[in-house]
Write a sequence for this structure.
């Protein structure tokens, strides 16, 4: 039964653009009367939104590896995302290699920085680590803003497309690629958590001293958690850069790090399904609340408080 | 007892925390298959001595040797690789995790699998997971825990948590096991079970170093007892003699006034 459900779910994911296209076609006549809703439900727009959600889901999973499983609070995750995006874009513009190469390159560059920021994390815990990662996030943004190679505050434009069959006018192709990336990362992370490495991560979150007495090299595994998470974020950044075709430093602000963290907390720290759900909930919430402008953050905050009050350990974590 | 090999030796261990001298020139040696009891009033430095062996406390001066090799300044996790395993005075189980997960994490250094084994479901992965589970069940049996494996470790009764912590320490297949007040919080029956368990552990070829306040447990199993007071060793002998040592009685009960 469980396998059947999973199969059905995957079929649903794969046919979603098709099904949604049909649904929109039939309901468009009715929807035309309500312009706002119609705009929101427009085919291209909604599919694009889902792609955005998928990217955020990857980021939320990657934060979950550090914060949810390994127990290290990070507030600068947008930095890894930015590093991935810029690394991929610069590399692609300079060498004009296929997307896959840029994609992997971005992952590894981001991973390198993950290890670099992981080193102070070995000595710091809790709030202190959060402040350090926060500072790291801002430093990365400011460095990008002031470097020539990154285009400064103007950003980078004309980033090569992913492939000839990916065009801005048809979001379906991006949808499928993002789903594949998310699925692969989800699966890899599930397997990671169920392996010896994942058990060590969780053990570090639970009790570092007990870990040491059992022969777990805490430093090594904390660095590994940062490396894996940064790698994922780098991949997400690369995909994002090539999809948008244009990136600038303001897309990777402190608030984005907070959003990403909020996604994994809301979904449930230590739950990967929760991260995906959290990414969808928050991305859509942000979009719906866009019309309220200055009140956006207030309403957003209130909704978060309500959700967390009723589900203190996240949507997917019981008790 | 020169014929039995001396495996762990502490020479002139001094540990200072700022101005406080927690241990002052303590010598100690542990022989193979020996149960060495460590007693002393509160604050005598017993746990600090454990910490000096397992690398949790920085030794100010002195040397810890294992089979003649210096292990004084090794980080705590390295000691586990050298088959020294310990439990803690205030139980340090992974409370939110299941009984089984606690034991599987205990098998960390023996578990032969790589990251890619898990992703690709290679035979190595299945084999190592199966081996670890088998081993965990074996040690659950060994310590006499019949709780369901999925039960949260933190929800076990106190005495059983102690037993689980010992089982987890045994997952390392240690040559030296350090037990820090294992009988604390146990009732008489559990205490007796603990004595039997420790005897079984020693029979399997592990030396045990034990801190214990429960004299019935300690005197019942120790081959040799070391008494600490104010960071200094004041006596060491076989249990029967230590019990009658005037210096030991004085440390525990105070000096008799004339």
């Amino acid at each position: 039964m469980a396998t059947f459900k999973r199969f059905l779910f995957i079929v649903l994911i794969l046919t979603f653009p098709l099904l949604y296209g049909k649904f929109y076609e039939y309901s468009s006549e009715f929807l035309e009367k309500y312009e706002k809703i119609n705009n929101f439900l427009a085919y291209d727009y909604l599919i694009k939104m889902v792609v955005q959600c998928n990217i955020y889901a990857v980021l939320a999973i990657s934060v979950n590896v550090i914060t949810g499983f390994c127990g290290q609070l990070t507030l600068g995750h947008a930095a890894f995302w930015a590093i991935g995006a810029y690394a991929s874009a610069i590399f692609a513009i300079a060498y004009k290699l296929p997307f896959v190469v840029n994609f992997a390159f971005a992952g590894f560059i981001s991973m390198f920085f993950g290890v670099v920021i992981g080193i102070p994390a070995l000595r710091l815990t809790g709030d202190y680590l959060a402040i350090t990662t926060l500072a790291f996030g801002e430093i990365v943004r400011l460095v990008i803003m002031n470097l020539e190679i990154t285009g400064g505050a103007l950003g980078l434009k004309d980033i090569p497309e992913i492939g000839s069959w990916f065009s801005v006018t048809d979001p379906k192709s991006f949808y499928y690629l993002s789903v594949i990336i998310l699925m692969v990362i989800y699966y890899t992370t599930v397997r990671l958590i169920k392996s010896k490495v994942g058990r060590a991560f969780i053990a570090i979150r639970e009790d570092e001293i007990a870990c040491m007495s059992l022969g777990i090299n805490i430093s090594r595994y904390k660095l590994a958690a940062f490396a894996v998470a940064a790698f994922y974020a780098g991949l997400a950044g690369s995909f994002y850069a090539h999809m948008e075709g244009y990136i600038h430093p303001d897309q990777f602000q402190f608030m984005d790090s907070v959003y990403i963290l909020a996604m994994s907390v809301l979904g449930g720290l230590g739950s990967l399904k929760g991260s995906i759900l959290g990414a969808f909930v928050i991305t859509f919430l942000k979009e719906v609340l866009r019309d309220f402008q200055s009140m956006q953050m207030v309403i957003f905050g209130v909704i978060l408080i309500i959700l967390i009050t009723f589900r203190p350990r996240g949507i997917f974590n019981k008790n | 007892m020169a014929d039995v090999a001396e495996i762990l030796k502490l020479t002139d261990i001094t540990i200072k925390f700022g101005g406080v001298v927690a241990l002052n020139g303590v010598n100690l040696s542990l022989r193979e298959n020996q149960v060495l009891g460590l007693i002393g009033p509160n604050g005598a430095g017993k746990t600090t001595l454990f910490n000096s062996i397992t690398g949790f406390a920085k030794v100010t001066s002195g040397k810890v040797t294992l089979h003649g090799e210096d292990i004084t300044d090794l980080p705590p996790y390295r000691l586990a690789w050298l088959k020294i395993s310990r439990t803690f005075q205030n139980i340090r189980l992974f409370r939110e995790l299941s009984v089984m997960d606690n034991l599987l994490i205990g098998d960390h250094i023996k578990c032969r699998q790589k990251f890619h084994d898990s992703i690709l479901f290679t035979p190595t992965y299945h084999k190592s997971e199966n081996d670890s589970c088998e081993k965990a069940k074996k040690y659950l049996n060994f310590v006499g825990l019949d709780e369901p494996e999925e039960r949260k470790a933190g929800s076990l009764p106190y005495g059983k948590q102690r037993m689980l912590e010992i089982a987890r320490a045994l997952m390392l297949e240690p040559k030296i096991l350090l037990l820090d007040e294992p009988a604390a919080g146990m009732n008489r029956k559990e205490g007796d079970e603990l004595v039997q368990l420790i005897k079984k552990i020693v029979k399997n070829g592990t030396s045990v170093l034990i801190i214990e306040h429960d004299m019935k447990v300690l005197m019942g199993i120790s081959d040799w007892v070391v008494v600490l007071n104010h960071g200094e060793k004041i006596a060491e002998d076989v249990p029967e003699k230590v019990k009658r040592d005037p210096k030991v009685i004085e440390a525990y009960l105070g000096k008799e006034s004339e």
